[in-house]
Amino acid sequence: xxxxxxxxxxxxxxxxxxxxxxxxxxxxxxxxxxxxxxxxxxxxxxxxxxxxxxxxxxxxxxxxxxxxxxxxxxxxxxxxxxxxxxxxxxxxxxxxxxxxxxxxxxxxxxxxxx
Length: 114
Fold this sequence. Notes:
mainly beta; 7-stranded mixed β-sheet
């Protein structure tokens, strides 16, 4: 079992930056990749960014050049650095881990005001 805890959300103005953190605990060796999803009100949950155990990354087109996913293996933590935030980035951001199974965090709210 893997337990994920997100933090770092908040209310910011457009153009600001936020860094989200996702701390993993439990069966860490079961994880092959970790990523961030988001779900805006009335919309489906969408993938934002992924990082594999090998360090490869992938981003949604809507965040390329603005968001950066990284990891600290020693801390079992994945980060999402979000720069140049836009109102359309407003959503609940969820951390997800994939491996022998899939695990989700509880989510952290990001609100970007115009």
